C-alpha cells in the first residue's frame, strides 16, 4: 500500500524504472490511466509505458516538452496542449474507448477537448508495464533521454472508461473503483535508482 508515498527517480538522465506486476485477463477495449507527477524536466520524458510483443507503444503517456502531453494507443498518438506547469504536482487521467475511438484527457481534475484515436483497436493483454522509461522493445530498449526524473504517485489503470465523477475523485484521491493497477495495492519491482519515500506535501 503506497498511500501517501511516492516513487522518487533521483537521477537525470536515468536508467531506472519501476516494473508493475499486473496483467489484464483479456485484451482491453476500454481503459483509464491516472497518475500524479512532480518534475522540473523540460526535455521529453515517459510517465507510463505499456508494451506488448506486437506493439511497444500499446499505451504510452509521454510529455515531450512543457505544455504538451502525448497519449498513445496502439502506436498512434494525440497531443494535448496544456498550460506550462507552475512547479507543482500534475495529476493526469487519460481514457480511451475502442467503440468510438474517443480519447479523453484530464489535467488536475479538468477535462480537455476530446480527440479521436484508434477506433476499433484492441489493446493486447500480455504486457510489460513500466513507470519512468519508454519501451522501444518489449520490456526494454530504453533511451535515457526519454527517462523520467522526479516523483510519481497515485498510479491507477482501469479496464473501463471512468465517469466524470470518478475522474474528479481520482484527482481528489477519494474512493475509487477496483482497478487492474491500484496505488493502494500495487505489486511492483524497483529497477535501478528509484526510492519509495513519504510524500512531502499535498
From TrEMBL:
Its main location: secreted. One of its GO terms (molecular function) is metal ion binding. It holds the Pfam family Pentaxin. It comes from the Eukaryota. Binds 2 calcium ions per subunit. SUPFAM superfamilies: Concanavalin A-like lectins/glucanases. Keywords: Acute phase, Calcium, Disulfide bond, Metal-binding, Secreted, Signal. Residues 3-202 form the Pentraxin (PTX) domain. InterPro entries: ConA-like_dom_sf (IPR013320), Pentaxin_CS (IPR030476), Pentraxin_domain (IPR051005), PTX_dom (IPR001759). Its cofactor is Ca(2+). It is found in: Secreted. The keyword Calcium applies. Homopentamer. Pentaxin (or pentraxin) have a discoid arrangement of 5 non-covalently bound subunits. Belongs to the pentraxin family. This is Pentraxin family member. It comes from Rostratula benghalensis. The gene is Ptx2.
Amino acid at each position: 500500500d503506497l498511500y501517501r508515498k511516492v516513487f522518487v527517480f533521483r537521477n537525470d538522465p536515468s536508467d531506472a524504472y519501476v516494473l508493475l506486476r499486473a496483467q489484464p485477463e483479456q485484451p482491453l477495449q476500454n481503459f483509464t490511466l491516472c497518475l500524479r507527477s512532480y518534475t522540473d524536466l523540460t526535455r521529453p520524458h515517459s510517465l507510463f509505458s505499456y508494451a506488448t510483443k506486437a506493439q511497444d507503444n500499446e499505451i504510452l503517456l509521454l510529455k515531450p516538452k512543457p505544455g504538451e502531453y502525448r497519449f498513445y494507443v496502439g502506436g498512434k498518438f494525440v497531443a494535448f496542449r496544456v498550460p506550462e506547469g507552475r512547479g507543482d504536482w500534475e495529476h493526469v487521467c487519460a481514457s480511451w474507448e475502442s467503440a468510438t475511438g474517443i480519447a479523453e484527457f484530464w489535467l488536475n481534475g479538468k477535462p480537455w477537448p476530446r480527440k479521436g484515436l484508434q477506433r476499433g483497436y484492441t489493446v493486447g493483454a500480455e504486457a510489460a508495464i513500466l513507470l519512468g522509461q519508454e519501451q522501444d522493445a518489449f520490456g526494454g530498449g530504453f533511451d535515457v533521454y526519454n527517462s523520467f526524473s522526479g516523483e510519481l504517485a497515485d498510479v491507477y489503470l482501469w479496464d473501463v472508461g471512468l465517469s466524470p465523477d470518478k475522474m474528479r475523485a481520482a484527482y481528489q484521491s477519494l474512493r475509487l473503483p477496483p482497478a487492474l493497477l491500484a496505488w493502494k495495492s500495487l505489486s511492483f519491482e524497483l529497477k535501478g535508482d528509484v526510492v519509495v519515500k513519504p510524500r512531502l506535501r499535498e
